[in-house]
Amino acid sequence: FNGKDLNNFNQVGTANWHIVDGVVQANMGAGHLVSKESYTDFEIKVEFFAGPKSNSGVYMRCLDGSKITDKTCYEANVYDNRPDQSGRTGGIPNYAPPIAIVNAEGKWNTYEITMRGDHIVVVLNGTKTVDARDSTLKSGPIALQYQGGDVKIRNVQIRKL
User: Fold this and answer.
1) CA angle 25-28-32, nearest 5°?
2) What is the pLDDT of residues 37-88, one digit of tens each?
3) CA nearest 45: which of 109, 91, 116, 104?
């Protein structure tokens, strides 16, 4: 995300993605910004703001860029109030629960995620929340989710390994 346009992404769903002062945000509908490029081994850094009761996430290695789910992608979740806390913010629902609890609501946060082979490491605001191995998903696009609340995203950086 270059802070100016969404040319590197396909929009899937009804989220009202728009850019304000270099920040992509949504506050209505539900959907994803899906990268036009696929990734296998990479590091991604994403800064995000999670308003009260927001639901968002960074999806990786998605099987199908038009059907994004937390079973067909790895999702670094952004959902402090998720009923099943094993998939809360910092965790990867269905694959790896968080090993540390970091609350994200009401502030800017930084995800630093490394995917190398079957090794998945998620660091949220400097705290490692996932250090797991899973070989289910090998490669695919990255997607940014809006599912509710006030969500803002900036400074998305991806580096292939």
Assistant:
1) 60
2) 999 999 999 999 999 999 999 999 999 999 999 999 999 999 999 999 999 9
3) 109
pTM over 0.90: yes
Is residue 141 within 8 Å of residue 34, measured between CB atoms?
yes
Contact predicate 31/65, CB 8 Å = no
State the amino acid at position 128 in one-letter form.
K
CA nearest to 57, candidates 41, 68, 43: 68
* Strand arrangement, sheet containing 31-39: 9-13, 31-39, 140-148, 55-60, 74-78
Query: Do residues 49 and 108 touch, judged by C-beta distance below 8 A?
Result: yes
Classify the C-alpha dihedral 25-29-30-31 as positive or negative.
negative
What are the backbone dihedrals phi and psi of residue 102, each rounded to the nearest 5 degrees, phi first?
-130, 120
Q: Assess contact for 161 and 41: CB atoms under 8 A.
A: yes
